[in-house]
Amino acid sequence: MPKELTPLEQLQLLVPGYRGYKVKDLIRQDDFLIRQSTISKLQNAINNLSMIESQIVSSNPFSPILKRIEFIISEIRTLIGIILSSQGGGADVYARYKIQTEQLDEIVKNDLEMISLANQVYNLSSSLDNLEQIPLLLNQIRQVLISRDKLFFPQEYR
Helices 134-150 and 101-124 meet at what angle, rounded to 10? Predict the structure, then answer.
């Protein structure tokens, strides 16, 4: 939940019966912002890799490393698409089962792990020295997404 709340949000948290709805709403907003930040970091990693790729092409257009870079960029784009289309915490209004605050907290924890991994991908994408580590981090992000998706289903359906 954000540390800075508007006066209206602070007032809403004081109203009995409405407090639970507001807490869930704030957690959902955090979930959305964290996912957007993750996407931004991954897009910046693509930009870094594209710049490296263009430098390699200018000096050696048939370098075998170009294929590897293109594969990594493709994997990052796939992950961005998955994150963009992943269910947010706010989709429980019409659901047969409801997502509780504890589950939303766990979703945000997964998102925070995802942003940490995306930050590592971004940092590694600035040079060719660590290129082989990026696919491992992308697989870890994929595993976090799988864990995150499971939180949207009741225990008996997992």
Answer: 170
CB-CB contact of 104 with 141 (8 Å): no
Is 0.85 topped by the overall pTM?
A: no
- Three-state DSSP at 112 gives helix
131-136 contacts at long range (C-beta below 8 A, 24 or more positions apart): 131/65, 131/68, 131/69, 131/72, 134/45, 134/72, 135/72, 135/75
Residues belonging to the chain: 158
- How far apart CA 28 and CA 25 sit, in angstroms, is 5
| High-pLDDT (> 90) share of the chain, % | 42
Query: Cα–Cα distance between 41 and 33 in angstroms, integer?
Result: 12
- pLDDT category, 68, cuts 50, 70, 90? very high
Apex CA 153: angle with CA 120 and CA 83, to 5°?
Answer: 30
Structure tokens at 115: 């942003």
Structure tokens at 112: 């925070």
DSSP state of 100: P
Q: How many CB atoms lie within 10 A of CB 24?
A: 18
